[in-house]
Design brief:
The complex is a heterodimer. By secondary structure, chain A is of the alpha/beta class. Chain A is 41% helix and 18% strand. Chain A has 13 helices and 15 strands. A five-stranded mixed beta sheet of chain A has the order 4-5-7-6-13, sandwiched between helices. A five-stranded mixed beta sheet of chain A has the order 10-12-11-14-15, sandwiched between helices. In chain A, strands 1-8 form a two-stranded antiparallel sheet. Chain A starts with a strand and ends in a 17-residue tail after the last helix. By secondary structure, chain B is of the alpha/beta class. Chain B has a single domain, classed as 3-Layer(aba) Sandwich (Rossmann fold), CATH 3.40.50.970. Helices cover 37% and strands 15% of the residues of chain B. Chain B has helices spanning 9-14, 30-40, 56-61, 81-97, 113-118, 121-129, 180-185, 202-213, 227-230, 237-246, 272-276, 291-313, and strands at 47-52, 72-75, 105-112, 135-140, 166-167, 170-171, 191-195, 218-223, 253-256, 259-262. An eight-stranded mixed beta sheet of chain B has the order 2-1-3-4-8-7-9-10, sandwiched between helices. Chain B has a two-stranded antiparallel ribbon with strand order 5-6. In chain B, a hairpin with a 2-residue loop joins β5 and β6. The longest helix of chain B is centred in the C-terminal third of the chain and has 23 residues, at 291-313. Chain B is globular, with a radius of gyration of 19 Å. Classes of the chains: A alpha/beta, B alpha/beta. Chains A and B meet through β3, α3, α5 and β9 of A and β2, α4 and α6 of B.
């Protein structure tokens, strides 16, 4: 079971897309996600898939065309990064409120300015409240696995929401790693075909999409949409359990790494988690009970479950690869701290900003975080005011 | 492309409306006259998906839980009607290819001049350039009427709008209007036409039918007066359209496969004043001290008419 290969994150996405063979892909080039539409266009040109590729004139049009295609009954996807995602912002909400299960491969990159092409989560975090499911990956294997699971989640009748599959720009998207692929037949059988209940082109039926709605109707529509996001929690776990059967790989809302007995924990998203795991291995050898909570699913936000997993910790560092520009830290910090308060956790917490605009995270950086966490638990705050990790002092 | 279009007035008028009555547009609205008549050009039995940019038309014809459209319909946002319909049309191609749908569809999307000349221009340009088999119809009433008569790049010069108000220091909109039909013709698509409500709607019908049944991208620009924004007596709409054409303010033409063709040339061109004097938005031009403005406007109309005639002679 499984085929060993080596490929980059973008290639892994392309391989999953080849197995899915979606109906329509509108896309616009932007670094570092450009390779994905390029790979799709070349698979179309070589007759490897029969997807209709639309080379649109902007990302706003790419999401707009995706909304049209998905409303018309097509299994639809696009890919983007950074400013491209920001340009889509208005219509992201339209896609979600129309309950369209569009897949978007997001290769995370810093928003301008200054203009910078490297990994940061500010782009997808900016869209965190747009009604899209968001699933993040640590490495190429996870990007591939998450992509194969995407439509099963988004198209589920209890969900019907668009989904972002996120990976870190360049670190994951362009670096080549070993990967185990699911065999074509098993992948295709797992993903299945898309059979929407209603769509614009359905035989013997007409449909109207995108109404104006007055106050007596709007609030109920929004509550129903919120329920879909709540339902997604159950569906994400069901799909992961099924995926484990064909892949042997286990997925949940998050990964716990030495968390069960951890006194000091870091919570983070994405590629930096691999580095943090290395630091934990070193610290564990020194007898320091360090652990990691690696967030996979950010939307829906599994706050209760994360808080429960952190219950035994004395001090927790919540790391955001995204500046909130609110004087209060990043989005993961704000949301998880609130969840921990509701769960009546008593751990000391700190919200750290790290890795902005591709700033490298080293094993020694992660070790330093854990050492400071230990001091924090002992009553000494070495993090200082508004802590940043890896910031140059001059 | 040479197409024969038969025009049987009675048969066409007897076709059931694809825009049902009961929508909330104003009495006498030019936009709905445009939509009803364009949709009448779909051959009975053919299926269509109708689209909309945000605007009066959308908020008044698809107010949840009611739709006035007999066909499948999609509205997305203000600036993306072109891209949205390009996605629908591509989905049709994809699903047809995979044998998932059998029926034939036509794709027609409507935008006002704000959603077409201005905020939706990029999305429209992209959809036309990519050559999607669809029709984009602009119902041009020369301002953002839905938000309360703000100027657009389709607003005629000197018009009094709420963002170009005539006043002691202002004579209305200082700029001339954009020639969008020419801009779209420059995309080298198979069919572009400009029309309005004339006579028994033959000109509009023939052009709509050609636009719908020409394979590839097509664009229709329809002058669709707005009684609120133009400030005229609502029943005068047909007279106003006629004066727009007879003064050569709104010429009727087609661009078929790059070849420009005048649809109508007035035997005796009427002075622009005849068109302007019917409309409250130009009232300030008729103050004695502003007569020079009418002359300047006339010169602009003459220049553009001569330019168009030259294009059509080539």
């Amino acid at each position: 079971m499984g085929i060993s290969e080596r490929m980059s994150g973008n290639e892994a996405v392309a391989h999953a897309l080849k197995q899915i063979n979606p109906d329509v892909m509108p896309a616009f080039p932007i670094t570092p996600s450009t390779e994905i539409p390029q790979f799709v266009a070349s698979m179309v040109a070589n007759g490897e898939i029969d997807t209709e590729f639309i080379p649109v004139e902007s990302e706003h049009s790419s999401m707009s065309a995706a909304i049209g295609a998905s409303s018309a009954g097509a299994r639809t996807l696009t890919a983007t990064s950074s400013c491209g995602l920001a340009l889509m912002w208005e219509v992201l909400y339209v896609a979600a409120s129309n309950r369209l299960p569009i897949l978007m491969e997001v290769v995370n990159r810093a928003l301008s300015g200054p203009i910078n092409i490297n990994a940061e989560h500010s782009d997808s975090m900016g869209a965190r409240d747009s009604g899209w499911i968001q699933i993040y990956a640590e490495n190429n294997q996870e990007v591939y696995d998450n992509t194969l699971q995407a439509y099963r989640i988004s198209e589920h009748p209890d969900v019907k929401l668009p989904i972002m599959i996120c990976q870190d720009g360049f670190i994951t998207s362009h670096a080549v790693e070993n990967i185990t692929l699911v065999e074509d037949e098993a992948a295709k059988a797992f993903v299945g075909t898309y059979e929407p209940e209603h769509f614009l082109l359905k035989e013997n039926e007409r449909m109207a999409v995108g109404p104006y709605a007055v106050s007596p109707y709007c609030m109920e529509a929004k509550r129903a949409q919120a329920q879909a996001m709540i339902n997604a929690k159950r569906v994400i776990l069901e799909v992961a359990a099924e995926y484990e059967k064909i892949s042997g790989r286990k997925y949940g809302f998050f990964e716990s790494y030495h968390l069960e007995d951890a006194e000091y924990a870091v919570v983070a998203i994405g590629s930096a988690c691999g580095t943090i795991k290395d630091a934990i291995d070193l610290l564990r050898k020194q007898g320091i009970k360090a652990g990691l909570l690696k967030v996979r699913v950010f939307r829906p936000f599994p706050g209760e479950e994360m808080a429960e997993a952190l219950r035994g910790c004395k001090a927790v560092a919540i790391m955001d690869r995204c500046e909130g520009y609110n004087g209060n830290g990043g989005p993961l910090g704000a949301e998880l701290t609130a969840a921990m308060y509701r769960a009546k956790l008593t751990a000391q917490t700190v919200n750290l900003i790290y890795g902005l605009s591709g700033r490298d995270v080293k094993v020694s950086d992660a070790e330093e975080v854990f050492r400071k966490l230990k001091a924090l638990a002992d009553g000494e705050n070495l993090f200082g005011e508004y802590p940043y990790l890896g910031l140059r002092s001059r | 492309m040479e197409q024969t279009t038969t025009f049987n007035f009675r048969e066409i008028q007897e076709r059931p409306d694809r825009l049902a009555p009961g929508h909330r547009m104003c009495a006498g609205c030019g936009g709905t006259i445009a939509v009803r008549n364009v949709l009448k050009a779909i051959h009975p039995g053919d299926r269509a998906v109708v689209g909309n940019a945000t605007g009066c038309l959308e908020v008044s014809t698809f107010m949840y839980p009611y739709t006035a459209y007999e066909d499948s319909y999609i509205h997305n946002a203000f600036e993306n009607a072109g891209a949205t319909m390009s996605g629908v049309q591509t989905a049709y191609k994809a699903l047809k290819k995979k044998g998932k749908i059998q029926e034939e569809y036509k794709f027609i999307t409507f935008g006002g001049d704000g959603g077409t000349y201005d905020i939706g221009l990029q999305s429209l340009s992209g959809a036309m350039e990519r050559g999607h088999d669809m029709v984009y119809v602009c119902y041009d009433n020369g301002a953002y009427m839905n938000t309360g008569i703000q100027r657009s790049s389709a607003t005629p010069m000197y018009a009094d709008t709420t963002t170009t108000p005539a006043g002691r220091e202002s004579v209305g909109k200082p700029q001339t209007r954009k020639d969008l039909a020419a801009v779209i013709a420059a995309h080298n698509i198979p069919y572009v036409a400009q029309t309005t409500f004339i006579g028994n709607m033959k000109d509009l019908y023939v052009k709509a039918e050609r636009a719908i049944y020409t394979p590839g991208a097509a664009f229709l620009n329809i002058m669709a007066p707005c009684p609120r924004g133009w400030r005229y007596d609502a029943p005068d709409i047909i007279e106003i359209c006629k004066l727009g054409v007879e003064t050569c303010y709104w010429p009727l033409f087609e661009v078929i496969d790059g070849k420009w063709r005048l649809s109508y040339e007035p035997r005796k061109k009427l002075p622009l004043e005849d068109f302007l004097c019917k409309q409250g938005r130009f009232k300030h031009l008729f103050k004695p001290e502003n007569e020079y403005l009418i002359e300047a406007f006339q010169e602009e109309v003459d220049r553009r008419w001569e330019e168009l005639k030259k294009r059509c002679e080539e």
